[in-house]
Design a protein that fits this description.
The chain has 423 residues and is of the alpha/beta class. The protein has helices spanning 16-19, 38-41, 51-62, 87-92, 114-124, 140-145, 150-158, 173-179, 184-200, 220-233, 250-257, 279-289, 297-306, 317-337, 342-352, 392-405; strands spanning 22-24, 26-27, 47-48, 70-71, 73-75, 131-132, 163-169, 206-213, 241-242, 259-264, 270-272, 313-315, 357-359, 365-368. It contains 16 helices and 14 strands.
């Protein structure tokens, strides 16, 4: 388990700590993602270990002197795939011309988590085991296909260590179709139900989505679509995966040919697919998905201008006077009316204008405005896509009124804003 001491006196294998107390429960995946090569070296059929085998290994793990009571993972390429996709796959093997999952899942897919829930319950009941976490990939689309929500409930109640990582991969349904992933609306439905279950169970656990930029079919317009969604949800990823062609994958074929071999048009030609080529455009797309980083500001501005989205860039001079005037007004209201709106109001304004200033051409200060809803949910009151700085004073005033008539995290009815609706 451990290597001999090095010259600097250090011992151990650093990467071992991530997997030392984890259980590999299965191999293979019938997910059919275009960019993934797992099916080529592990197969589309699931090879699952028995409960007896996993419980035996778990008991050995609990005897390790370094074990603190936490099994870090029980999973594989896809944690909640534990059996063949359907009865036909068991009888005849994987279909050659059909996908099990993806944008339009096969109607024959056998969706059940019963056996996996059973396994997790057995592991939780072992002596010396405090918690059993799932940190491998969870297919949220497969989970949402299951009408029995037992696994969803138990996942949130027992098996998340503060945050659940899932892979929606993109926001644009056009790109998701090429990736052979479920559409974005299903992810939003999953995220809403995830939040609802957490609320019911009294948990405060976060959802961490993974995104891929520069996948075939994704240009600057699609990257901006992701950025606007991230701005709306108040989440900016620390890590973004750049697409790189993997030998043998369908996405690699699209990358090199610029064609989608899975879609032949009426004229007999294959569908043409836009491909982001060159390191610079890749950097532009990545910067858009991480627009809050100071070092990305010049790239964000360049990407917006190239995409013809100058409406998302404006001069900070148009904002400064209104900003400070309304901050002053909110301070007066907080002081004389006893309403504590100053802190939440200024925080909300920073979300409205979130990326911050950067020096543009000629030395003037600019700010990148990624419009969309901030972290606090104001319904339709705050800037939406396409609104430019001429609406900013009204928008900032709306944010202030929201905090006057409602507490944070509450929506405001239109009846509270009779005058503003006419502006």
């Amino acid at each position: 388990m451990y290597d001999p001491p090095a010259e600097n006196g250090k011992t151990g294998i650093p990467a071992l700590s991530e997997v030392q107390f984890s259980l590999v429960s299965s191999r293979g995946c019938f997910g059919a993602c275009s960019f993934c090569a797992i099916t080529f070296h592990q197969g589309r059929r699931i090879q699952a270990r028995s409960h007896e085998s996993l419980l035996k290994e778990a008991k050995i793990i609990t005897e390790n002197p370094d074990f603190k009571g936490y099994i870090h993972d029980v999973g594989g390429p896809t944690a909640n795939f534990r059996h063949d996709a359907c009865k036909f796959q068991k009888e005849r093997g994987a279909c050659q011309n059909k996908d099990c999952m993806g944008t339009n899942p096969c109607k024959n897919v056998n969706v059940t988590h019963t056996e996996y829930v059973e396994l997790l319950r057995k592991l939780r009941s072992l002596p010396k085991v405090k918690k059993v976490f799932i940190r491998s990939g969870i297919r949220f689309d497969y989970l949402m296909m299951d009408e029995d929500r037992s696994f969803f409930k138990e996942l949130i109640e027992h098996h998340i260590s503060g945050q659940l990582k899932v892979a929606p991969e993109h926001v644009s349904n056009k790109v998701l179709r090429l990736m052979r992933k479920s559409n974005h609306e299903l992810y939003e439905k999953f995220a809403a139900e995830y939040a609802e279950w957490n609320k019911k169970l009294g948990k405060k656990q976060y959802l961490v989505p993974y995104y891929i930029c520069s996948h075939p079919g994704a240009g600057l317009a699609e990257a901006i679509e992701v950025a606007l969604y991230l701005k709306k949800t108040g989440f900016v990823p620390d890590q973004v995966q750049d697409f790189y062609p993997t030998p043998g994958s369908l996405s690699t074929c699209m990358y090199w040919t610029g064609l989608n071999p899975r879609n032949r048009l009426e004229n007999g030609e294959f569908e043409e697919v836009y491909v982001a080529r060159g390191a610079h455009e890749r950097r532009l797309q990545r910067a858009l998905l991480q627009f809050n980083r100071r070092e990305n500001w010049p790239l964000v501005k360049e990407a917006l201008e190239k995409a013809g989205r100058k409406d998302l860039v404006f001069n900070v001079a148009a904002f400064t006077f209104v900003y400070f005037a309304l901050v002053f007004l909110s301070t007066l209201i907080s002081t004389f009316c006893g309403l504590d709106v100053f802190t939440s109001f200024t925080a909300s304004l920073s979300m409205v204008g979130n990326v911050g200033p950067a020096f543009g051409e000629g030395g003037h200060v600019e700010i990148f405005l990624f419009v969309g809803l901030p972290a606090v949910d104001y319904g339709d009151l705050v800037l939406r896509e396409g609104e430019i700085c001429r609406n900013l004073p009204i928008t900032v005033l709306k944010v202030l009124v929201v905090h006057l008539f409602a507490l944070e995290d509450e929506r405001v009815d239109d009846e509270h804003l009779p005058a503003l609706s006419d502006l």
